[in-house]
Amino acid sequence: MAEKHYTLQLNAKVQPLDRWDMFEDPLMELLEKEWIWEIDWWGTSFDQETWEIFYCDVEIYLNDDSAESREKLIKLVNKVWVPKGSFLIFIDGEEPDYDDEEADIPDSTKLEIWTLEWLRFSINWTELPEEVYKNNDINKVIDDLIDLMEAEKAWTYYSYVTRNTHTDLIFYWNSFAKMKEIVEKYAPNNPLCEKSLIEQIA
Hints:
Layout: E1 4-10, H1 16-34, E2 37-46, E3 53-62, H2 67-77, E4 87-90, E5 109-112, E6 117-124, H3 130-135, H4 138-151, E7 157-162, E8 166-173, H5 176-186, E9 197-200
Antiparallel strand pairs: 1-3, 1-4, 2-3, 4-5, 6-8, 6-9, 7-8
């Protein structure tokens, strides 16, 4: 059977080093055990002006194009912490010749695939009084929220992303609503959290 190409598009707004720890290393280990794969490339798509991360891609090549191998791939990917809003993208049927400029490229199939919901807590770094930044430590915010979430047996802090006006703290669990409740109770008690934003990114 012919080799089959898949793109795993991860709705993961995280830095490359964190992406490796959470996705690349565990996924490669799982696929290696099955001998059905080749991972060709990992990449991160981001806004070059604001540095906001959009998503991460991984290009996967299976040894054959059977539905059974695809189902096995999906089961393996589901063992990794995949954010809601992620997709496995592929072309049904025979792969086109991408080197042929006149080749007819069919529309891709997108299968949504995910295991966790993600919350982005954005700390404002431009609009608060200077003494707030001087007298408060974002690491304390992270540690406090980790303790609160672990007390609720929630999953916990994963990564941060620095943008022009905010630093985003990324948390993950199977319930965005529960994470949001914990953060909303905490935020009024820390001056650094004034003018912060809570968003569901997955």
